[in-house]
Amino acid sequence: MYDNMYIDYMNFIFTNCYKRGGLMKRFATNKFFKSLLSMFLVVLMALPINVFASTNSSQKLIKTSTIELDNSKKTAEVFALKNILKVVNEVTNEGWTENTKISDAIITYDLDGNENGYIFNLKTKDKETGYIQILKLNSVYYVNAYTFQGRHYLDKMIASYKTKNNNFKDEYKIIYNGNIDFIINEDTMQKNKYYNLTTEQTMQYDKSQLQIKYNKIEKNIIENVPSSNSNSFSKLSAATSTTGVKKYVLNANNADLVEMDDFSGRTLNGQLVDNHCSPTAGTNLIKYWANRRGVTQLFHDSDWWVFSSLCVNMSTKFPQPNAGTSSANFLAGLRNYSTNTRSVSYSGDEWWGDGFLESCTFSKAKSYIDANVPFHLDLVGHSVVCFGYDTVSGTDKLIINTGWDKLWTFQAFSSFDIDYYQYVRWN
Fold first, then answer.
1. CA 14 to chain centre
2. Please, which residues bridge with residue 388 across strands?
3. Which of 119, 132, 320, 416 suits a disulfide with 106, CB 3.0-4.6 Å?
4. Per-residue pLDDT tens for 74-87?
5. Distance linking the first and last C-alpha atoms of the chain
């Protein structure tokens, strides 16, 4: 009965206090309402937080807040709603309004089992309108990523895991480890058997190796992403940003994209398709150039035909535990697919980050988008395609397709652990 009470309360407080001039101002002339409101707030704050929690909620989807309510810091829900309102007033907005509210939340953890973030799925007038991911690092809040459509792709990741493993244990804590990596520890006793929900692969790393990566990304975020703590939160402004720009490559349209689960569970040459993010990213690049840039000969027959051909050209290995595509084979595979499979000449290509002193910076990524060239964002452990960038709100963000859905994801550049940038272009 209390599942949604807390989130409904925070949405109510936000709507009235932040967007309509404040409750006390509205009731200032009525002593009865002032007294009633005061009594309500005193009773609410006296209740333990677990009053609002469902007794049968699992770690993977929690519809209530477990963030502490005290006088020293605001809740992540309020921080999220405040930042949603900022986006509403910015050029980056693609669907949120003042009526956008939190519908449910997913709690994420660090490798030690401490809460390190909250993914709030959103609705606007009963329509699913994306999510906003808030990180909590050293009790300081940061906006890490958001979309304007659908729900967070963890729903699909968990559903895929259930299909392959028959269940998803309630004791599993979803670990956010930077990039778009969501991990679970399948053996809570050994604490070193990790499964990457993003790549659908049992990881060959122990906790100490994963911790090095986590510490690196945490440092980058703290140093580069605007934050809010108990002292600065009240000073945040919802005013329209006058700096920064949002830009996509020419004619970008996410309706053309494919999803990893469009191919998951299929077989290719008698082998189960697994860990196939690279040929999925390649398929999205081919569809963009064919459908949006007029190189129609690149595409043939169906998404599955293109994907299957790229798997062959990229020498993608199936099945586990050695499944995947090397960086060298990704780029060579795109070129081979173009020249040998489809008889289309490409006009240029690049592999950035493989040479001496080649750093994968935001400015380099921005230069590709300014030249209308989408590129392969070769992350440590995963492949995605970048179709744009956004510098509004003082945060450098890349606009990517994660491979798990067809949506544009706006994500802070500082939360990526990047190996290389790669592209092939056709005009």
1. 24
2. 248, 399
3. 119
4. 578 889 999 999 89
5. 58
